[in-house]
Amino acid sequence: DAGVIQSPRHEVTEMGQEVTLRCKPISGHNSLFWYRQTMMRGLELLIYFNNNVPIDDSGMPEDRFSAKMPNASFSTLKIQPSEPRDSAVYFCASSYGGNQPQHFGDGTRLSIL
Amino acid sequence: AQSVTQLDSQVPVFEEAPVELRCNYSSSVSVYLFWYVQYPNQGLQLLLKYLSGSTLVKGINGFEAEFNKSQTSFHLRKPSVHISDTAEYFCAVSDYNFNKFYFGSGTKLNVKP
């Protein structure tokens, strides 16, 4: 089992640029979650999908953030335009749903200059 | 809605000493409970989970937790810690509908030699 795979591991870019984070969930998992982790706010759920359909995006901070899941094996989180306050570690997690625990990727450390 | 409180943001302890990391939750419905560990520059890993049955749950790396419904607590314990247990620990709760997880703010365990 390859686990949840996120790319890139690190991203440094200038404010105003578009940023795309990628996630490949564990094969067979039907739920996918995007989190943001910062020192100030801790771990925040941004959005989650069930069977590729967005179920709850109430955690998405603003319209600059968008997420897609075109198929069961791929999801993206996009920030356009990026701002310095978006700097954080972004985690993707997946699960079988129901009462099954979430499995996390190693995260993308994003720095917006 | 559910919420999770981890009262201790940091817990320093000497190697081979026992440790307890506290977690309290609030919920109007029955819940599932989880403890995750996060090592530096990594994603969260599942330590243990309580779904039903015995209130004492044993997890990996010698950790265990006890579900106390009357006190709405799910404290994590280890009788003898190692330097390698130094990490941040997160308590999480999800409801029976399992729409999403609610994470606590985390407790940083610092094991000293």
What does this structure look like?
The complex is a heterodimer of chains A (113) and B (113). Helices cover 0% and strands 55% of the residues of chain A. With 113 residues, chain A is mainly β. In chain A, the strands form two sheets. In chain A, strands 2, 4, 5, 6, 9, 10 and 11 form a seven-stranded mixed sheet that branches. In chain A, strands 1-3-8-7 form a four-stranded antiparallel sheet, with no helix packed on it. Chain B has strands at residues 3-5, 10-14, 19-21, 24-26, 31-38, 44-50, 56-58, 64-68, 73-78, 87-95, 101-103, 107-112. The radius of gyration of chain B is 13 Å and the shape is globular. The chains are: A mainly beta (113), B mainly beta (113). At the A-B interface, β5 and β10 of A face β5 and β6 of B.
Mean pLDDT metric of chain B: 91
Which parts of chain B are unreliable, with pLDDT below 50 for 5 consecutive residues or more?
A: none
The share of residues in extended strands of chain A comes to over 45%
Shape category of chain B: globular
Strand content of chain B: over 45%
Q: Radius of gyration of chain A from the CA trace?
A: 13 Å
SS elements, strand count of chain B: 12
Low-confidence stretches of chain A: none
Task: Jot down its keywords.
heterodimer; A: mainly beta; seven-stranded mixed β-sheet; four-stranded antiparallel β-sheet; 11 strands; B: 113 residues; mainly beta; 12 strands; 54% strand
Q: Would you spell out the secondary-structure blueprint of this structure?
A:
The complex is a heterodimer of chains A (113) and B (113).
Chain A lengths: L4 E3 L2 E4 L5 E6 L6 E8 L3 E9 L2 E4 L8 E7 L2 E6 L8 E8 L7 E2 L3 E5 L1
Parallel strand pairs in A: 2-11
Antiparallel strand pairs in A: 1-3, 3-8, 4-5, 4-9, 5-6, 7-8, 9-10, 9-11
Chain B lengths: L2 E3 L4 E5 L4 E3 L2 E3 L4 E8 L5 E7 L5 E3 L5 E5 L4 E6 L8 E9 L5 E3 L3 E6 L1
Parallel strand pairs in B: 2-12
Antiparallel strand pairs in B: 1-4, 3-9, 5-6, 5-10, 7-8, 8-9, 10-11, 10-12
